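Weekly modeling sync, notes
Attendees: AB, CL, MP (scribe)

Item 1: holo prediction request
CL wants a bound-state model with zinc ion before deciding which constructs to order. AB pointed out that an apo prediction alone won't tell us much about the pocket. Agreed to run with the ligand included and paste results into these notes for async review.

Input as submitted:
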Amino acid sequence: MWGQPAAAVGTTQNEERAAEQMWARVIEDAQRLQLPTKFLKALPPDFIHVEFDDLRTYAAEYHPAGHRMVLDRSLSFNAAGRILKPLSKMTHKELEVFYHELFHAYLDYLTVIDAQSDEVGHRSDELLHFARGQQACRYGEVQITPIIQRQNETESRYLTQAESWEALNETWAVFIGWAVWHQLEVQHKTKQSMFQEPRQATHWIRRFKTAFEKGEFRGYYVPEDPDERRLARKRYLAQQSQLALEEAVVLMKQVLGFQDDFIERLLTAFGVARTPLCSTTEGKAE
Ligand SMILES: [Zn+2]
């Protein structure tokens, strides 16, 4: 699965084993780098089909149809475009991109298993349930920046279901990538996990607070309306519509597996004991 040409018809046992080994290596590598693995462990080894192409550096794509992750050739072993290179050989920026795409795959996976379950009264995965609530109450109407260079000029948009799901998906993936890049940066000197080193934790939390105040956790969506798409291929969310602190905390806990005491410290830094709930949750969210 990992970088095998699509020509291979059917999944032989060997291919299955290769996918399992490859995925196990990704998780091992991530553990060695003291990076999050909680959501990686929840993904079946053969869920993602990785392909390589000549994309722009740091460009990557995830296509839910076929669960295809297309990465730039520079992320493959010896840039040969066949198999993924070890995580230890990736730059911090490449790991940010990789984790961003892995998160898209994870949300895709949760959606797939939810759709497959036809059990009566079945409960959605906790994160998916939360995502749908947030989609309705935070991403149904958003502020966008029509001109990227002018961050202060914003306009309001009502999003379709597909648009609001994409806006949420991208916003959350931006945060996941950000979290990993900054974890690597603060752990760089000592190679110790920031959960064991209170000083490093402080650095990460400070960086998070600054990024949050600057409104850096913003996603985008591709407009469905052809007229709107003619004006802009992508619409970027404005600072007012960035990731909420509540969403960040849920992602830290449920996706990245950050420790509770770390999250408590972070909330203390924000001066809140608990995160505020989405203001329009009542009635709107399921
Ligand atoms: Zn993305």
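Recorded for review: The chain has ten helices and seven strands.
Action items: CL to compare against the apo run; MP to circulate these notes.
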